[in-house]
Specification:
Its cofactor is Zn(2+). Keywords: Hydrolase, Metal-binding, Zinc. It comes from Mesorhizobium humile. This protein has about 240 residues and is α/β, with parallel strands linked by helices. It has a single domain, classed as Arginase, Chain A, CATH 3.40.800. A 6-stranded parallel beta sheet has the order 1-6-5-2-3-4, with helices on both faces. Helix 2 runs parallel beside helix 3 and helix 5 runs parallel beside helix 6. The termini are far apart. The structure holds zinc ion (ZN). The site of zinc ion (ZN) has 6 residues, from loops.
């Protein structure tokens, strides 16, 4: 029914998609600082820096306009994309986190100025479960400007890269002024979520494929959880991107 209640507990539920986003002292300051990190990085891209990496924590891609979820409070990627778009840029977002970027999709679903592409594990078996399917392609004037590329769980780099290749083709067709990569590293075979099997070389190839789009690029950190190889996955991705 979607009614906003008066009670604080009811409101906490209204504005949250699940129970993963605890609110404690300092939560708002952290979420705001994370969004500002993405905005500052986007400012550098708009000012002519070719590629900038924003180490945003908490992450953002599961957050909708008015709803926190999946460890995300403010959608850092969407805030940066919206700001660039408001300054006249045509923006493409490619989300490679192992979980579908449902918040980002929801925010831009009815728009055609921002293309949203997400490569992720099949949501029939993986968070966010209720979105991320291939037949979600946008609505109204945004029809055709959202692309979901779900991959079977426990796939290796080959399957993930094949999906990403299709996503890159959609970006080329859209012909954007700039690219935002929502960089989740949780498709790693060593990630504690244990739902995909990408190794270091897979992340390197992923970075290289996105770098070859040859666009001014903002890279926003999304998911990726403690494992012995988390840092190596990031380094491999960034080195691949830089080797374009
Ligand atoms: Zn994730």
């Amino acid at each position: 029914m979607g009614r906003l209640p008066d009670d604080l507990l009811g409101r906490a539920g209204y504005y949250q998609a699940d129970a993963s986003c605890v609110l404690v002292e300092g939560t708002w300051e952290a979420a705001l600082a994370s969004a500002n990190t993405a905005l500052d990085a986007m400012d550098r891209v708009l000012s002519g820096t070719n590629a900038v990496y924003a180490l945003c924590r908490p992450p953002g891609h599961h957050a909708c306009r008015d709803q926190a979820g999946g460890f995300c409070y403010l959608n850092n990627t969407a805030v940066a994309a919206n700001w660039a778009s408001s300054r006249g840029a045509r923006v493409a977002i490619v989300d490679v986190d192992v979980h579908h970027g449902n918040g980002t999709q929801a925010i831009f679903y009815g728009r055609r100025d921002v293309l949203t592409v997400s490569v992720h594990g099949d949501p029939a078996w993986l968070y966010p479960y209720y979105a991320g399917y291939a037949d979600e392609t946008g609505a109204g004037i945004g029809e055709g400007f959202n692309s979901n590329l779900p991959v079977p769980l426990m796939s290796d780099g080959e399957a993930y890269l094949a999906a990403l290749s299709a996503g890159c083709a959609a970006v080329r067709q859209f012909s954007p002024d700039l690219l935002i990569i929502a960089l989740g590293l949780d498709a790693s075979r060593d990630d504690p979520f244990a739902c995909m099997a990408i190794d270091e070389s897979g992340f390197g190839r992923m970075g290289r494929m996105l770098g070859m789009l040859s666009l001014p690029t903002l890279i926003v950190q999304e998911g990726g959880y403690p494992s012995p190889t988390l840092g190596q996955s990031l380094a491999a991705f960034l080195n691949g991107f830089g080797s374009r």
